[in-house]
Amino acid sequence: MKILGIWDGHDAGAAVIEGDKILFAANEERFTRRKLEIAFPVRSIQACLEGSGTPRDEISHISVSTWDFSKTLARVFPSLREEYYLLRRRKKRPGRASFLKKRFKYRLTEYPPTDLTKWISSRNVRNHLNRLGFRNFRLHLEDHHLCHAATAAFCSGFDRALVITLDGLGDGLSGSISRYEGGALERIASLSARHSLGIFFEHVTNLMNMRELEDEGKVMALANYAYPVDDAENPILDLIRVEGLAVRCRHSSLGMYEALKKILWRYPSEQFAYMAQRTLEVKCSQLIQNAVTATGLDHICLSGGVFSNVKMNRLLRVLPQVKRCFVFPHMGDGGLALGAALAANHRLYGIHDIPLNNPFLGPEYPVKEIETVLRESGYSYKKSRDITKEVAEIIAGGEVVLWFQGRMELGPRALGGRSILARPDSDAIKDALNLQLKKRVWYQPFCPSMLEEDAREILEDYDGRPNGFMTMAYLVRGDRMNVVRGVINRDGSCRPQILSRKGSLLGELLEKIRNLTGHGVLLNTSFNLHGEPVVCSPRDALETMGLTGSTFMAIGDFLVRRRDE
Question: Which domains does the chain possess?
Answer without folding.
Answer: 2-147+337-349 (3.30.420.40), 156-327 (3.30.420.40), 367-561 (3.90.870.20)
